[in-house]
Write a structure and sequence with these properties.
Length: 398
């Protein structure tokens, strides 16, 4: 992983991804990495347009997908080699996007594909996205989430650990259908997991578990966060989206992805609404929300990219798997509630408001004066108190 990227999952249709105006809008919203999950011909047509706007690509070529789906171990090396040679003329490919949310029974074929990618394109990353911790044992193919992560890392040997977690439930009108007779078992399990609780906890337990595994094996983490309203997931406010992004940053995520940029076609169960753009590429409110957030966090993400959180603490109440702040580094104590604070190896401190509805003030009792990151540089904070709007955060340093 070379730098801090902002990306998304599920983008424009084939008709739109090859239009310069579509890619220009994506770049203007602060995205610098795009997934290309199309035919080989469309991927190749899109890549020069992405380059024109300074965007790199994660390419999902259907030939690699067929190897994965068929468990064709014998073909993995030769197919990856052929794909690499076929795209050799393009210099804005960051890596190869392989699959979303695999069951552990697919780990061996993924290991073969990843090995081939490392062999034939060592400068490009293989990307696989994993289930969240609320997936069932049937979905995981493992009895628990930590076992799933450990098996994945030890069998597949990934160069990045990506997962998704959709935290905000409470959609008012669902019209949910668990099984309309047209879905396979995998999709049915996903729907059951989505409907399993009204007030989903576990966001912090999930991110803490992922970070522990990433630290143990030296793998950079990535998180796909909720954006599009669908199924039981509500239409997010700007503060809720900002909350998700800042929780990624305080826990040291090296890349942030939004689900979704383009609104997927209507579905009798998911009823997708309010993505960043609609099905014709018209900008929705979330386009402006995300554009603003991406601009705000770009420099912070890049500043924190080359370092890792030594410790992350919660201020006030804590959840399963987290630890309450009782003093660390230059800060002896903090007066306030509903916060998360991360202390990074390079001396940076990231303080977040854990409340996505209300502002919060935190008084920092520090051994030495603190500086605050503004416009790419640190300047004197000038106070021992910091007020943060709902979901907001601030980068500090002693």
């Amino acid at each position: 992983m070379k730098k801090f990227y902002t990306t998304y999952y599920y983008g424009p249709t084939e008709q739109y991804v090859v239009k310069p105006e579509t890619v220009a809008n994506i770049a203007a919203a602060g995205f610098d990495l795009m997934p290309l999950h199309y035919s080989t011909a469309v991927n190749k047509q899109a890549l020069p347009i992405l380059k024109r706007y300074g965007i790199r690509a994660m390419v999902g070529d259907p030939r690699i997908g067929r190897v994965y789906n068929s468990d064709d171990f014998a073909a993995a090396d030769s197919v990856v080699k052929a794909v690499a040679e076929d795209y050799a003329e393009f210099d804005n490919i960051e890596g190869w996007d392989i699959i979303d949310e695999p069951n552990s029974e697919k780990f061996p074929i993924l290991a073969a594909i990843v090995n081939a990618i490392k062999k034939h394109t060592p400068d490009k990353e293989p990307l696989i996205n994993l289930f969240p911790n609320y997936a069932s044992p049937e979905q995981l193919g493992n009895p628990d989430y930590l076992t799933h992560l450990e098996e994945y890392v030890n069998v597949v040997r990934p160069t990045i650990l990506s997962y998704d977690h959709y935290h905000f439930l409470g959609r008012e009108q669902r019209n949910a259908i668990l099984d309309d007779g047209r879905i396979d078992e995998r999709e049915k399990l996903i729907r059951i997991s989505a409907e399993s609780t009204e007030n989903r906890g576990g966001f912090f337990e999930n991110i803490e578990t992922v970070m522990k595994v990433c630290k143990k094996y030296g793998i950079p983490p990535m998180l796909i966060v909720l954006l599009v309203e669908h199924g039981p997931y509500r239409n997010l406010t700007e503060a809720e989206i900002l909350w998700e992004v800042n929780m990624c940053l305080v826990y040291g995520m090296k890349r942030i992805s939004y689900f979704t940029y383009w609104c997927p076609p209507d579905d009798p169960f998911w009823h997708y609404r309010n993505a960043i753009c609609d099905e014709q590429g018209n900008k929705m409110q979330h386009y402006y929300d995300v554009s603003k957030i991406n601009r705000e966090i770009a420099a912070v993400g890049e500043h924190l990219f080359g370092t890792d959180p030594a410790e992350v603490f919660h201020i006030g109440a804590s959840e399963a798997g987290t630890q309450v702040f009782e003093g660390f580094g230059p800060i002896d104590s903090i007066e306030g509630n509903d916060g998360v604070i991360g202390f990074f190896d390079n001396g940076s401190i990231y303080l977040c408001n854990r409340d996505f509805r209300n502002s919060n003030t935190f008084k920092l009792n520090s051994k030495m004066p603190l500086t605050v990151f503004k416009d790419g540089v640190f300047e004197e904070l000038g106070s021992d108190s910091v007020t943060l709007e709902a979901g907001a955060a601030v980068l500090l340093r002693a």
